[in-house]
Amino acid sequence: MLKKITSDSYRLLSPTLSSSSRAEIERITKLINDHPYPNQPIQQILKKHIPLSSLSPTIVSEILGRLFAAHTNGLKALEFFKYTLKNKNPPPNPDSFEKTLHILSRMRYFDQAWSLMAEIKNHYPDLLTLKSMSILLCKIAKFGSYEETLQGFDKMEKEIFKKRFGVDEFNVLLRAFVTEREMKEARSIFEKLYSRFSPDVKTMNILLLGFKEAGDVTAMELFYHEMVKRGFKANSVTYGIRIDGFCKKRNFGEALRLFEDMDRLKVDTTLQILTTLIHGAGVVRNMVKARQLFDEITKRGLVSDCGAYNALMSSLMKCGDVSGAIQVMKEMEEKGIEADSVSYHSVFIGMMKSKEFGFDGVCEYYSKMKERSLVPKTPTVVMLMKLFCLNGEVNLGLDLWKYMIEKGYCPHGHALDLLTTALCARRRANDAFECSRQTVERGRCVSDQVLRMLETSLSSKDEVEKLEELKRKIQKLQNLLPPSGTLLI
């Protein structure tokens, strides 16, 4: 099924890596994230501490995936990627380039993103992929206008890829609008360019996905019938999109009917579709059906992965069976499938709502997560930080902050807002200042709310001087950020 590219799209560390490679990846990630950019040049540090001979394409890709998930300043990631380009044997791989482009465009560094595209075109044209094109166009559609997105598409055709685009590139353009739920624009482009690009079933599935993501099941079904009338045959992706649409609208009966139609019409059932249905069973609190669908995976000759187990865990949590969900996690790990950050997120949510486990249960599994050196994703960090701070456990909030920093991450700004508020309320402004300093020195700005709290809470002469120095660093950092209204093309 088509997916929006997010930080969750990039796994943190491949399970096939050796322990020494994992350690090296963590060391380099932390080195880059901790570097006080832009106050000091980073290339010299990279050259001193990271031998080019140690940077295989896989390791470079994994490091950039970690930097993406850690919300590292995009310019630091760009400097690292450019440093790896000096390693001619072996050359970089497309995945590393795509991740660098994603980091830059997410931070709206569009000038640097286009410059990098041009550099890759001149020296490493094999790295230019449909995915790299999609990453940049999706961000232009998100932050820019309809016209700028079309201009970006035109620029890629004439200046970057330098070839006449076909239906594959047309699908990328449509996907950019669909990703941002701009269905009016997507439909307009479809009608305008239909005759030039001769759409395929993937084109139709992208538009179908757009209506589903917009939450308009009626429009989704109307377009499905239009798709059939135009002569396109529905495939497993088509059915997966429709099933997900009905599941999200709590129309689980219709989703099951479509599932039965797939069997009748001999359309291949995928693991993704079964996972979607397990989630759907949880939405309507049908625990029995969730387990039946999970068992169906093996019966159909498919192999359950972490996503399928997470779907079952989530469904059990929604039904209030926290103990059952925890047992599922144990079964998963017994079969050699490691729980990931999504697994723990589901457990935390379930325990927070449970009278049996509650706050103590969350703390127990938070400790287990740290013992496994698992780094939670941003939504989990913010959720835990809020839970700790609102329950008067500010030390746990500070512990979570330090854990993320030690792992080479700079937690999301909302997590800092929550922690700073809790620390200042308990007259621990120096701890709040230290967290803010760590954020700024890693190339990230802090909110005005945090600065106001620090101004109110720090009163001694030395403290005021430290705060003024922090403000100067923030100003220097802001000078690197693109000004509002910057043209994207």
Automatic annotation (TrEMBL):
Kindly give the NCBIfam families that the UniProt entry links to this protein: PPR (TIGR00756)
Q: Which family does it belong to?
A: Belongs to the PPR family. P subfamily.
Q: Does the keyword Repeat apply?
A: yes
UniProt name for this protein:
Pentacotripeptide-repeat region of PRORP domain-containing protein
* PPR repeats: from-to residues: 200-234, 235-269, 305-339, 377-411
Q: What keywords are assigned to this protein?
A: Repeat
BP GO annotations:
mitochondrion organization; mRNA splicing, via spliceosome
The species is: Arabis alpina
Q: Tell me the Gene3D superfamilies matching this sequence.
A: Tetratricopeptide repeat domain (1.25.40.10)
Q: Which GO terms describe its cellular component?
A: mitochondrion
Gene Ontology molecular function, alphabetical: mRNA binding
